[in-house]
Amino acid sequence: MNETFYDVMRRQGISRRSFLKFCSLTAASLGLAPAFAPKIAHAMETKPRIPVLWLHGLECTCCSESFIRSGHPLAKDVILSMLSLDYDDTIMASAGHEAEAIVTEIVEKYKGNYILAVEGNAPLGEDGMYCIIGGKPFVEQLRYAAENCKAIISWGSCASWGCVQAAKPNPTRATPTHKIPNLANKPIVKVPGCPPIAEVMTAVVTYLLTFDKLPTLDAQGRPQMFYSQRIHDKCYRRPHFDAGQFVEEWDDDAARQGHCLYKMGCKGPTTYNACSTMRWNEGVSFPIQSGHGCLGCSEDGFWDKGSFYERVTNINQFGIEANADKVGGIAAGVVTAGVAAHAGITALKRAQSQGEQK
Amino acid sequence: MTAIITPNGYNLDTGGRRIVVDPVTRIEGHMRCEVNIDENNIIRNAVSSGTMWRGLEVILKGRDPRDAWAFVQRICGVCTGTHALTSVRAVEDALKISIPENANSIRNIMQLTLQVQDHLVHFYHLHALDWVNPVNALKADSQATSELQQKISPHNPKSSAGYFRDVQTRIRKFVESGQLGPFKNGYWTNPAYLLPPEADLMAVTHYLEALDFQKDIMKIRTIFGGKDPHPNWLVGGVPCAINVDGVGAVGAINMERLNLISSLIDQSITFIDQVYIPDLLAIAGFYKGWLYGGGLSGTSLLSYGDIPDKANDYSASNLLMPRGAIINGDLSKVHEVDLRDPEQIQEFVPHSWYAYPDDLKGLHPWDGITEPHFKLGNKTKGTKTNIQELDENAKYSWIKAPRWRGHAMEVGPLARYVIGYAQGNKEITEQINFVLKTLDVPVTALFSTLGRTAARGLEAQWAAGKMRYFMDKLVTNIKAGDLATANVTKWQTDTWDSHVKGVGFTEAPRGALGHWLVIKDAKIENYQCVVPTTWNGSPRDEAGNIGAFEAALMNTKVERPEEPVEILRTLHSFDPCLACSTHVISPDGTELTQVKVR
Q1: According to the model, what pLDDT value does residue A2 have?
Q2: What 8-state DSSP symbol labels residue B142?
Q3: Nearest-CA distance from A212 to chain B in Å?
Q4: Do A291 and B51 touch (CB under 8 A)?
Q5: B136 in A contact zone (CB under 8 Å)
Q6: Is A127 on the interface with B (CB under 8 A)?
Q7: Which of A309, A319, B302, B597 is the right S-S partner for A336, CB 3.0 to 4.6 Å?
Q8: What residues in A contact B384, CB-CB < 8 Å?
Q9: How much is the ipTM here?
């Protein structure tokens, strides 16, 4: 799938002698006996795991936390056997200069052959100094690591869209990966969500490794396998929507019977994600199943689309089954599509008129 | 160079060699640490700097207070939910909303679940590599490892020699690949690592086991909150409805869901008792001569308290986690803490990258101002966008300096445990005495890096027990016919007074957490958070007091200055969370909305 580490070094004009010396030094730096050096050399000559630089900008680390909740594959198997997570400041052993040196090493030695994973985003305000790594703006580290990478994964809504720190008025000018000025032109896979579902994250990684190519992306840059259908369309409470059975207030009889949360502000009708099918934490539940409406956390600018408890209103009465590409961020119009396609217009009208009577 | 004595009693000497650690890794968020070491490699000056700022509270201005929990929850995805809980409590305080007993039990179970998972992940995945050498584990004898395991935890079924041999084989293959991943460039030849190979192998095995198990614990929160990280919360109660045997019960908290939660609680208790606590004691046993890192823990400690037994009573006597303040090292007197008193909690900014109209005065959070003001001191080495060495005489951190009656304070599990111990809390005292006796160390050994790490483990054990307590309470209440989970009498904004303010607090895994907010005409007028790492990671204040991180690093010996194992040990013992600590904002917000949008 990839060039081996040894191939890369040879291509860069490094002699076999230097390569073996490197292996000895690696063994020594680990406090291992010299006998380990040939084993390391053998491994590097044969099948390397693809290196990953997982950088963190302005974020809350929820994406990493989600990643380690993956049930299949387990996070430990991803880290030990599938890829080489060489830089991730949340879990890496080294710190300071030794940590920074890893970024340089991977960028230099694996040119075009490592994955850049970005969690969080870079603030451009104050010359980038709202997020400082090694005394320098994070955006510099991001640009440097992007220059030679094979592809970029934008984890979560921060890296994909900007998320909470980019909500109005975006005081730090937090900027998602694909909008960073002067960033190398590399393929970007957006995996939005706050955070994304754990198994979606590990599936994106394992797809890359298994099929040795990027997943098919929609026009917004998201893997279509997970982000091409609305939560509303696959929601198990959808029949209650169509039947006009709605929760009217928290903890009412309808809430206890699991009726539709549309009137409580659920953003399922305008949100493209896999929550209602894959569900969360190994299928245990998802927001609507646990009684709260969807916040729409995988959509661009979801923080600035009105209260989470405001019903999606202003519904046009016509529309067709739109795909995610056409919908973009226009919340109100999308509901139309779902309603018309599923003959739920009457139900919706009923919901609207009931709302007005309240 | 210059030597200063701080008001809180530290001799700072900026002579000697300056060591910079940036990024500090295995924490949440971004921080930088600089120390000066003398000719004997002893730390004589410490500077801790928060290196990120997100401006969340300015973003909250003008928003619907019922939405605030979702925004502030995104302050931190590691202690996910604790900010959300603090927020709904603050809004409920402002609007005088009481919540049903079931909602209180469910919230407590969620918060305690976080304590257990967060402490577990911290110990194994953020902190262990400061004490445990995974490469050394390759030298272990698997039979001897098995014997060690059976000795320290006789009931743990995963203790055979074959089990450890399999794990060792996997680690060997990993190391022999030459691709060390997260263990790359670690300090594996540093003499600071003291464990025998067998203890290293046991701990690395549990590093992997804990990584598998922590995801299961959090399913409890997914049942109640729909997802984790970042489950859903609700002002007035919890969003999940209870329906045990009515129509549509399959879609609510029902018998099957209760059984799943109950089973996960049992597994959590077992894992902590059979794995976490025995490992903690075993590892501590090898390091008990390493008693650095006490810092403020022997003198200045603060806790707000948490886990209300009965709903809606936030007085100290109803809180199962202790509240109080200890100052001047006087454990005989635990002071009352009042979050509303403008004289008690104040934040200072003379050494923080913010501006006040008068930089020398502290402000209570309800009156706080936060305007970012990034400015480096004259003695900074490097440039604005390439800092070599910070000038701690000037502003040097994105973290403010909160003080309790002028004192720099430590917060967190150790603070809670020392305060509980000083108050004679029976459960806490029994746990502490057990550890002191097992390790054969005096009570003063608590005031150390290891004391902090031990208190966290004990607290995880306590929290797992309390999950069971509140689960039983929830079931008992349901049995009595009470299914209520939300109070909606004040859900509609037209039922609200036009101008109110409130405060909410929790004990986050990392320590005392408070949110103060002002609501005007149903919108957020001001929102201010003072979080655990703001307390612990604070820079100096106007009087020159150093913060808890800085104090804890003082006078520590480093074996190899270029390999900051000891610095990481002590910083990690606080479990720093930088995204939490660096997001503050002004009460009127107006200045901030205009700044720096170039």
Answers
A1: 57
A2: H
A3: 20
A4: no
A5: yes
A6: yes
A7: A319
A8: 127, 129
A9: 0.94
Report the C-alpha gap between A134 and A123 in whole angstroms: 16
- CB B189 within 8 Å of CB A29: yes
For residues B483-507, b (16+ Cβ closer than 10 Å) or e, as one string? bebbbbebbeeeebeeebbbbbbbb
Write down the pLDDT at residue A340.
41
Q: Does A48 touch chain B (CB under 8 A)?
A: yes
Q: Does B481 touch chain A (CB under 8 A)?
A: no
**Residue B176 contacts A, CB cutoff 8 Å:** yes
**CA–CA gap between residue A196 and residue A193 (Å, rounded):** 4
What residue ranges do the domains of chain B occupy? 1-55+294-429+494-513+528-598, 98-184+192-293+448-489
Hey, is the C-beta of A269 within 8 angstroms of any chain B C-beta? Answer: no
CB distance A131–B138 less than 8 Å? no
Q: Could you say which residues from 157 to 176 on chain A have a Cβ atom under 8 Å away from some Cβ of chain B?
A: 163-165, 167-174
Flag whether pLDDT at A21 surpasses 80.
yes
**Beta carbons of A320 and A327 less than 8 angstroms apart:** no
Which pLDDT tens digit goes with each residue over B318-344?
Answer: 999 999 999 999 999 999 999 999 999
CATH ID of B1-55+294-429+494-513+528-598, from 2.60.40.3140, 3.40.50.880, 3.40.1360.10, 1.10.645.10: 1.10.645.10
How many contacts (CB atoms, under 8 Å) link A and B? 368
SS (H, E, C) chain A: CCCCHHHHHHHCCCCHHHHHHHHHHHHHHCCCCCCHHHHHHHHHHCCCCEEEEEEECECCCHHHHHHCCCECCEHHHHHHHHEEEEEECCCCCCCHHHHHHHHHHHHHHCCCCCEEEEECEEECHHHHCCEEECCEEHHHHHHHHHHCCCEEEEEHHHHHCCCHHHCCCCCCCEECHHHCCCCCCCCEEEECCCCCCHHHHHHHHHHHHHHCCCCCECCCCCEHHHHCCECHHHCCCHHHHHCCCECCCCCCHHHHCCCECHHHCCCHHHCECCHHHHCECCCCECCCCCCCCCCCCCCCCHHHCCCCCCCCCCCCCCCCCCCHHHHCCCHHHHHHHHHHHCCCHHHHHHHHHHHHHC
**Residue of chain A whose alpha carbon sits nearest to that of B118:** A65
Phi, psi of B62 (to 5 degrees): 85, 0
- Per mean pLDDT, which range of A211-215, B79-83, B437-441, B532-536 is the poorest? A211-215
Mutation to test the A interface, candidates B27, B34, B47, B52, most A Cβ within 10 Å: B52
CATH homologous superfamily of B98-184+192-293+448-489 equals: Cytochrome-c3 Hydrogenase, chain B (1.10.645.10)
CB contact (8 A) between residue B564 and residue A95: yes
Q: Assign B463 to helix, strand or coil.
A: helix
Distance between B336 CA and the closest CA of chain A, angstroms: 33
Identify the H or E element spanning B504.
strand B499-508
Rg (CA), chain A: 24
B1-55+294-429+494-513+528-598 and B98-184+192-293+448-489 in the same fold: yes
Which among A167, A258, A282 is the nearest to B59, CB-wise?
A167
Mean pLDDT of chain B: 94
pTM of the model: 0.92
CB contact under 8 A, A289 and B595: no
> Rounded to whole angstroms, how far apart are CA atoms B229 and B252?
20
| Cβ–Cβ below 8 Å for B184 and A102 | yes
Task: Report cis status (omega within 30 of 0) of the bond before A169.
Answer: yes
Rounded to a whole number, what is the distance in Å from the CA of A319 to chain B's nearest CA? 30
Interval A150-205: pLDDT, tens? 999 999 999 999 999 999 999 999 999 999 999 999 999 999 999 999 999 999 99
Contact B211 A292 (CB under 8 A): no
